[in-house]
Amino acid sequence: MIKDELLKKWLNDDLTDAEKEAFSKREDFAFNQKIVEDSKHFKASQFSKVDDFETFKTEYKARSSVKRLNWLKLALRIASILVVGFAIYFTMFTNEGVVKESTQLAEKTTIKLPDLSSLTMNADSEITFDKKSWNDNRQLNLKGEAYFKVAKGKTFDVMTENGVVTVVGTEFNVKARSNYFEVKCYEGIVRVTSDTITRQLLAGDMFRILNDKFSQDKIEANQPEWVENRSSFKAVPLREVIFELERQFNVKVTFEKTNTLRLFSGGFPHNDLEKALSAITQPMNLTYEISSSNQVLIYGNTD
After folding, report:
1. Phi and psi (nearest 5°) for 201?
2. What mean pLDDT, rounded, does the chain reach?
3. What residues does 285 pair with on adjacent strands?
4. Please, what are the domains in the chain?
């Protein structure tokens, strides 16, 4: 109220010398004087009149509000710039050491890891790991299938959506596809955990969860056959076999009058589509047709 009284008296030119000195030292003195100076250059119509104090006070508050609002907009703009800047910084620098490798359909590749471990990825697979922290944390993420040769050292973890495979130094194969999780141990000891199931595998042991059904078995090979361009299966549904055929040859297979849940045991080569299809269909009394370079039809009875 005191400030308003001084402002009112100043506008009416009724301030004493002491009040003038006090008013001139107020923080808003320059702002108020600027409003008055600007008003001298404004020419209204002949019917306009000088605002009274209450009107001036309303205008003053409105202008002050606009001033605060402009500062708020500026602050929000600066904040948004900072947020974007931090996002770019963390994207660039926190992922600086992350390595991502993948294979396409009908492709395989071998990767050397920082500790001289190695892995061979089957077709349509992907791995990611942090190279910077590898010496302290040997861990990678796998989507698809890979054959590992792990150098001895700290614990080595393979993380998949289906489960976790933990080793120290060994050779093993992990297949982590949709509804298909399989681990084969070729050397050393492997610990596998998937949901509530945990098993320790020795050389020659196999762990499998297929369509939510768990099973264990023995293997005789000393490495996965797909590394040598041949896929092999033991009591696996036909549709899973065909999925692998599609990955290895980059083809699309359709069925007609075929029971795709029948179990298949056997294998097929990766270097000849005709031979691969014959190896699959003949033992199951099925027939196939190749309609184009990437279209295959398999048909037969539903027995």
Report:
1. -105, 140
2. 84
3. none
4. 2-94 (no CATH), 98-226 (2.60.120.1440), 229-299 (3.55.50.30)
Can you tell me the distance from the alpha carbon of 106 to that of 66, in angstroms, rounded to the nearest whole number? 65
CB 232 within 8 A of CB 266: yes
Give kind and range of the element (H or E) at residue 34.
Answer: helix 29-40
pLDDT score at 230: 97
- Per-residue DSSP letter, 243: H
Map tokens 């309609």 to a residue. Answer: 291
Please give the single-letter amino acid code of residue 180. Answer: Y
Residue 23, pLDDT above cutoff 90? no
298 CB-contact burial (10 Å; exposed 0-12 / middle 13-18 / buried 19+): buried
Phi, psi of 136 (to 5 degrees): -95, -20
- What are the two backbone dihedrals, phi and then psi, of residue 291, each rounded to the nearest 5 degrees? -85, -25
For 43, 141, 223, the CA distances from 161, given in Å and listed in that order, are: 76, 9, 24
DSSP 282: G
Query: If phi over 0 gives left and psi between -120 and 50 gives alpha, with beta otherwise, what is residue 49?
Result: beta
Strands (E), the chain: 98-102, 109-112, 118-121, 126-130, 138-149, 156-159, 164-167, 171-177, 180-187, 189-194, 197-202, 205-210, 213-218, 230-237, 252-256, 263-269, 287-292, 295-299
- The C-alpha atoms of residue 23 and residue 94 are separated, in whole angstroms, by 56
Regarding pTM above 0.90, the answer is no
Indicate the helix (H) or strand (E) that contains 63: helix 53-94
Q: Is the dihedral of CA 71, 76, 80, 86 positive or negative?
A: positive
